[in-house]
Design a protein that fits this description.
Two copies of one chain form a homodimer.
Chain A lengths: L10 H19 L4 E2 L1 H7 L4 H9 L11 E2 H12 L5 E6 L3 H7 L9 E8 L8 E2 L2 E5 L3 H8 L3 E4 L3 H13 L4 E4 L12 E4 L2 H14 L10
Parallel strand pairs in A: 3-4, 3-7, 4-6, 7-8, 8-9
Antiparallel strand pairs in A: 1-2, 5-6
C-alpha cells in the first residue's frame, strides 16, 4: 500500500535518509522483507513518530502489523534523492582537497559523478586529476549549459570563494557543496551545503590540547 | 594589554576561530597591526559582542581605540587551538576516503599530522598511502601509547565504526573525527566530531532533483 501524502520534506529529514538507506541495505542482505518504524527508530535513537514522518514525506506509509516493505522503501528513498540516476557535478579547484575528493570513488554510491574539474592555475589546466580533466575556470558557464550540470563542489582558496560562487550561480549551478571556510552568499533557490573541515579540526585540536570535554552542539 | 579572563570556551566559539585566523593572516599580509571587533564582526556577519566574547575566551581583550593587536591575537588563537604544535593523528581505514584524506596536505596548515594509518585488510597492511604507512588495526593500542596519539580519523565502513570506536577509546584516543555515517557512542570526555558526507550529498541531490529551494538549517 503506497499512499501519496503531500508533505514538504524538511532538511533534517533529507539528512537522515542515507542512514535509513544503509539500514535497508543491511536488511536486504539479511533477506528481511519488512521493517517497522519502531525498529528503525531504535537503531538510530530516534522517535518512531519521527521515522514515520520522514518516510511519509516520501509518500510511503507502512502496512499494519507488517511495517514497511524493504525493497519498496529503498526504491522510494533512492528515487526521492535522485540517487538512482547519477547526478553530475563540477569540481571547482583542482588543488589538494579537490584532488582528494576527485579520487574518492565512494561518491558513486551516492549517485554523484564528477564530470569535470576547473582551475585558474595554468599548470593544472589540461591535466587530469584521477581521470577527471581540468578546464580553465572561464569555460565553466559554457560547459554547465551544454552538460546540464547543476552541482558545484567548491574546493578553492577562501579568497576566491565568493566571486566564484557568483559566477557559478550565473552559470545555472543551483547546489553548491562548499568545502571552503567562507560563509557564502547565494540567492534564494541556490542551496549551499557547507563542510567546514577547519572548524571541525579546531574542535578536535582544542579538546585534545586542553583535555576539556567540550559539549557537542551537533549530533555526534 | 593581555588580561587572563576565566571563561569556558563554547563549541561555537571554537568553530569560529579558524575563520578569525584566516582574516588575521590577511591583515598581516596587508601590514595592518590592529583590528577592531566591529570590523571582524562585519566581515563575518556576527555581532561585535560575540566577537569580543570569543576573543575574551582566549584571554585576549582589545585596547581602547586601537582594537586588538593582530600578531598577539594570532598567537593567542594558535596557542589556544594547539595549532602552533602539530597534533599527531591516526587514520583508521585506508580505503578510498582515508586515502583521499591522507593525500590532503592542507591539514598541515591546521597543525594536523597523520602519522600512521590502520586497516584490517591484509592487502593494504604494509603498503603506504601518500607516504603514510598502513599498520594492522590490532597494533593501534600499542602505537597510541608509544606515540602519545590522541586523535583518530575514522574512515572505515559503517559496520565496523562502533566496535572500532570502543577500541580507540580503550587505547586512549580522546578526539574522534568521524567520517562514517554512524552516530557513534563514546564515553564522556571523548569528543566525536562528525563529517557526514552522505547526509550533505542527500541535501544537494534532492535540491537539484526537485529544484526545491530547501531551507538551510545550519549556517551556509
Amino acid at each position: 500500500m503506497i499512499e501519496k501524502i503531500l508533505t514538504t520534506p524538511s532538511l533534517p529529514t533529507v539528512r537522515r535518509l542515507p542512514t535509513y538507506l544503509r539500514l535497508l541495505k543491511e536488511l536486504q542482505d539479511e533477506k528481511q522483507h519488512y521493517v517497522s518504524s519502531t525498529y528503525i527508530a531504535e537503531r538510530f535513537q530516534l522517535e518512531p513518530i519521527q521515522v514515520r514522518k520522514d518516510l511519509a514525506a516520501m509518500g510511503i506509509v507502512g502496512q499494519p502489523r507488517l511495517g514497511f516493505a524493504v525493497t519498496e522503501l529503498t526504491c522510494a528513498i533512492m528515487q526521492f534523492l535522485g540517487w538512482n540516476n547519477a547526478s553530475e557535478a563540477f569540481l571547482i579547484g583542482a588543488g589538494n582537497l579537490g584532488s582528494a575528493l576527485a579520487g574518492y570513488s565512494g561518491f558513486a554510491d551516492y549517485g554523484l559523478n564528477i564530470v569535470a574539474a576547473f582551475d585558474v592555475d595554468k599548470s593544472k589546466i589540461g591535466t587530469r586529476i584521477h581521470d577527471i580533466k581540468v578546464f580553465p575556470l572561464q569555460k565553466l558557464p559554457d560547459l554547465a549549459l551544454r552538460l546540464h550540470v547543476h552541482i558545484g563542489i567548491l574546493t578553492l582558496p577562501a579568497a576566491a570563494a565568493q566571486t566564484t560562487t557568483d559566477m557559478l550561480v550565473q552559470a545555472g549551478i543551483t547546489a553548491i557543496w562548499n568545502f571552503t571556510p567562507v560563509k557564502l552568499m547565494a540567492p534564494k533557490g541556490v542551496i549551499v551545503e557547507k563542510v567546514d573541515l577547519a572548524a571541525s579540526l579546531a574542535v578536535l585540536s582544542r579538546s585534545v590540547k586542553e583535555k576539556l570535554p567540550l559539549k557537542i552542539a551537533q549530533g555526534a
